[in-house]
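dumping the sequnces here before i forget
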Amino acid sequence: MNCETCQLKELLVVPTEIQDVLRCILHTIIFHRALGLVRPKDVECEHFELTYVRCGDHEIEKKIDEKIDQFIGWVEKHPNRKGQVCLSFYEVKNKHATWFGNKIERLYWEQWYINLHVLNPKSHGKSHYTKAPISTGENASEESSSRHAALESSLCEVLFQIIRFADEKKDHIPTVQNSEIISFPFEISTPSSSDSSFGWHADVLKRMLQTGHPSMLS
Amino acid sequence: MASPSESDRKIITRFLHKTLHAVVASRVPRLHHAAAGPASPKNDRWFHLALDDHSSPADHHGAVVDPLVFDILLTRRGCSDVIVERWTARCVPPAPWSAASPHHPHDGSFLRRTYKKCTILLRSIYTLLRLLPVHRIFRLLCSSSQPYNYDLCHKVLSFAAPFSRAQEAELKQYSFAPVETMLGHLVVSVQYRPSLTNFNLEVSLPTPPLIITDYVGSPAADPMRPFPSSLPDRMSHPIVYQYPSRGIRTVAAPSFDRPHSWNSASMVHHPLSSAPGPPDSELLPGHYGHLVPNQRSSMERKGSSGFGEFKLSPPCSTSPSPSPPTRVGNSQLSRLHSETSPVSIPLPATENNQMHRSPNFSDPFKSLFPPPSPRSTRTDLSFRESPSKSISFRKPDGFSLGDIHSNLHMHAAYKVIKDGRDDSGRFSALSSGGSPGYGFSSSSRQSIQDDLDDEDFSYPFAFDDVDTSDSQTRSLDGKEASENSGSHKSQEAAVGILVHMLKTAAPLRQDQSCSMQSLEPNGEASISSSVMSRKACDALEELQSYKEMKNLLLSKSGAKLQDSVKQRKESSETLS
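..and the predicted 3d for all of it:
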């Protein structure tokens, strides 16, 4: 089974917008893959005029919020850096027992990469993104509002991207074998706090070894 | 067990219905506000997507291959409807000559796969519905209580005329990936307006308040304006009310045709008689029962209240300042007064009578009574024990009808002396606007109570026990005073006896009842004059008795003095 991968469009965010953006994207993806009996719940974004849909399961919401907090913690320690959150759906397959115990193998059949470029409003000197001197006063507020509007438009595009991908790619989805809301197990990966750029790549390599399949870029 | 094709048909039919349900639920505010119907687990199971039942549209009864088109229209006031979204869902059968026509296995796996894909497709449709621009309008209409100049509605069609080129240029299209079924490909697409900024969508201004200048009862209104005949039938209790410059009017319900005698002369001296009265034509029986709203509106115009149960009144003035009618809740008085002609009993100008100083038209009952006294607020007597039992209304704030009645005994004469125009203590006590006795309907007692609960309610005949000055000197019987004048007690004892006599004076009840029954068109002046004369005689007799007492005391004291002087002389002579 191929692992379908979707690299979502990079979003330029400030720390205060991270939670809203990640909640919107993660819940939208999970709603498409929650094939159990769902009573959808409409949620309006806090910072954007967008409405997204949640499954209505508290456990899922709790798990998502925990991962978002982890990512925010990493951002605080690594300001003005690009970060990536990965949502992976997998199947569990037991392997034979080894010397060190039973090894549980995960077969990832779908991965979603959420790319965020976090801007620190207190950044001094030149902006990493625009490589231009930071303006002050009225210009700063205008830039902020234009950046916010652009982010809202980009976020909408990302949601369209999710819909299109989820709609077009259905054949790789495994058979539903339970009646739970979340029909397939998933995990959310964030950059580790003690991580360097090398460490982030190590996570990707580790995942590749677990799946046994090369990552396929969409 | 159903055949695969039947199962497929059922899946397709259910999918179309569910799609329509999802679209309507997120686009039509009217259905969103509708009360939710009972939960339907059976419908929820389909595609594992539970939607609100109150927005469930009718099932699609057409053929599976018939397209389902639902337009979302934006309706605006004064403008034509505009299609802002068009959803199209249909099952496209494969071309018979197409080589791509698959041979699907009949083991059910294909059916399960179809069902799974339909489930995912529905979730995509549900998510996309929230991303399109129209959803923002839907949210505004659902969440805000303000009225807008636009609304959203929908149309379900099996066939829709294609858009013109100009229209298509304004629309964007999004088509979902088709889902393969045994009967064809399930295709869902949407054409939508990417921007709604061209439409002037705003909160509609509220309707400006309309000022009705010719409301019934207004000075500008036609006083002869008839009222609808749907007056309530609870007019069994006659109501007597006072009418400025027209005297007392009585009503004997249920007869509306009973003639009345109106006396305008008796009200000339009334303090409120300066208010313009209605034309005589209003007093005709023909207008009987027609002017209840008029009167009520005039009351309201003056800020009065409590006429909610004022069911029947004779025609009254529509002038700006008619005196408010009052009601007495006992039919006996009503009947009694129905036999009499209208008599005006102006309010005597007393210190305790605030109504003369500042008649309060905001409350019809306020204006009728003088201010209460502390003592009278604590007394609790039943007014219904009065001989006539004609006036009965509930005690407001500690007052009772008995308070009124007891004070009547004490102050009727006082008021008569103060104001020579009273005909009876009872009616003068009740009237401040010159209103005589009133007929109250029992149904209006509660409203009366509400009015009377007002703090400013003026309790009639209020006086203080401690104040034994003028108020107690006018109810004496002259004969009793003269009998005591010959006592040989000291001056202090005489005064004490006088006070005792005043306190234990007989009530004027008999006098009042007699005066009530003798109400005639011209009885007011005669009664007042007789009472005046009687009281004057008593006063004169009292004065004479006091003089005699004084002279007696002086004479005695003088005699004693002379005796003492003589004795001293004699003693001095003997000593010398």
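The longest strand of chain B covers residues 82-92.
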